[in-house]
Automatic annotation (TrEMBL):
Keywords: Signal. Residues 1-34 form the signal peptide. This is Ig-like domain-containing protein. Residues 34-57 have a biased composition (Low complexity). Residues 34-62 are annotated as: Disordered.
Length: 487
């Protein structure tokens, strides 16, 4: 049966009271009930005449386009049936739909012309918002002969709408370090497995490590964008296999297989480690200190090391020797503060399969950075025209500014026309200081021109760059004409 929404829907298909009542009354009325018309005899005469045979009518069982629907609702169900009428001329076909909830559609009519069997396909549709366990539709022909079809059944099962939440996407990969090891298998022999977890949104990530098919470690960590997680094993015998990092939430993901291989060999003789050649370096620019040293091993094995600065551990690391040899390990520059800026000691301690070793070296105290000097471009400070009277070009005076970041002795010299003009000069500078230089006029010319440059050689090398100059003697003044005596 239709649900209550269907009943409301069926009202739209319900018969019009006025139209249906008129049709049914007209169809139900027999010849004896109808009043005599003009030109006709009374009831007795009508009954005496022959009856007009009614055409044969048949109706197929209605069929739904989706007999058993299951899915999202609302859903529109279309139903159709075929009505066959053996017509003998103009025939009016009147029919209506009967619904499973007891309601009826309004009466519809179709005009049929011609003779013989005519088939008319009739259709109707209804929209359902809820489940219909056993709905049906039937066609009732009212004219020219009253015939009702069999019931055509259908069902509607509305699926629940599930809102899918956006899930954080997770990707993961894993690797072994070292992936292959040959040597003595001791408690210090270790294979580390590292996994990199990446997320599309910051999330708490639950994960576990699977080693050769068995779960060996669990974890939960906050990942903002990417993060490394890991675990390690210490094989005591030769073996090979793989580890997989599995993410359990918020999304599920598996890494690649991180394969490893261990071949244990008896050590003869025992591997021993040592550390030598520790060198420290103080960087006075920013007051930092770094160091490097050489780690040596007589055979294969894993060597761990610890850097200490004034007794405090600042860095741990390890390196693997597949054979005996040496490796350089480095302490990146560390910023010094407090008493450490006045100098101290750096220690490197190494741990091997059978022994350990250490070395200590002092480092220099930080020094204030030395003052540096810059120089401005050279400019013309003045022109000496008195030389023009000796048939020479004018003398030219120049000026440049030396600027230092602190008190210092500045050594410099001048270059005129590409040639060093004088011995090295010295001035004490703390801040900015103007220095001057001059050149004589060119002989036999009224113009003095060329290039001038100031070059600093200490405390740092710098230059003003060459500047071009031109100076011209002023034009001689014209004497006033002599006075002419009056007559």
């Amino acid at each position: 049966m239709m649900s209550s929404p269907l009943a409301r829907k069926a009202v739209a298909f319900g018969a019009s009271t006025v139209v249906l009542a008129g049709m049914v009354a007209a169809l139900a009325a027999g010849p004896a009930q109808a009043g005599p018309k003009v030109g006709q005899v009374g009831p007795a005469a009508a009954q005496a005449g022959p009856k007009k045979p009614q055409p044969k009518v048949s109706v197929s069982t209605p069929k739904a386009t989706q007999r058993d629907y299951a899915g999202a609702c609302p859903i529109k169900v279309n139903v159709s049936a075929k009505i066959s009428v053996k017509a003998t001329g103009k025939t009016t076909l009147a029919y209506r739909w009967l619904h499973g909830d007891g309601s009826k559609s309004k009466v519809k009519t179709v005009r049929i012309k011609g003779h013989g069997t005519k088939t008319v396909t009739v259709k109707q549709s209804a929209t359902f918002k809820d489940d219909v366990k056993k709905g049906w539709e039937a066609v009732q022909v009212l004219s020219p002969r009253k015939v009702t079809s069999k019931k055509g059944y259908f069902s509607v099962t509305c699926a629940k709408v599930v809102e899918l939440k956006e899930v954080t996407k997770v990707s993961v990969r894993a690797w072994a370090s070292p992936s292959s090891y040959v040597g003595s298998c001791t408690p210090g022999t270790k294979i580390d497995f590292t996994g990199l977890i990446r997320v599309s949104d910051p999330s708490w990530v639950r994960y576990r490590w699977i080693l050769n098919g068995k779960v060996v470690d669990y974890g939960k960590t906050k990942v903002w964008r990417s993060k490394k997680v890991g675990f390690g094993i210490s094989p005591r015998s030769s073996e090979h296999g793989y580890a997989v990092l599995q993410v359990l939430g918020p999304d599920r993901a598996y890494s690649n297989k991180a394969h490893y291989k261990v071949l244990c060999k008896s050590e003869a003789p025992a591997t021993r480690v040592a550390v030598t050649d520790l060198v420290t370096a103080t960087n006075h620019d920013g007051c930092k200190v770094g160091a490097h040293a050489v780690v040596r091993s007589t055979g294969p094995g894993r060597v761990e090391y610890v850097w200490s600065l004034n007794g405090q551990r600042v860095l741990r690391g390890d390196t693997v020797f597949n054979h005996g040899g040496k490796r350089t390990v480095t302490l990146p520059e560390k910023v010094l503060t407090g008493a450490a800026t006045k100098g101290g000691k750096i220690t490197l301690t190494v741990f091997g399969p059978r022994n350990s070793d250490s070395i200590t070296q002092s480092y220099a105290a930080c020094e204030a950075p030395k003052p540096t000097v810059s120089v401005s471009a050279v400019t013309v400070a003045g022109q000496r025209n008195e030389m023009c009277a000796d048939k020479r070009g004018p003398g030219v005076d120049f000026k440049a500014t030396l600027t230092s970041t602190g008190p210092t002795t500045v050594k410099y010299y001048w270059v005129v026309n590409g040639k060093r003009d004088h011995n090295t000069l010295e001035r004490q500078v703390n801040g900015s200081l103007d220095v001057q230089w001059g050149v004589g006029g060119t002989h036999g010319a009224s113009v003095t021109s060329g290039s001038i440059e100031l070059v600093v050689i200490s405390p740092n090398a710098t230059s003003s760059g060459a500047a071009q100059f031109t100076a011209t003697c002023p034009a001689p003044s014209t004497p006033a004409p002599a006075a002419t005596p009056s007559a």
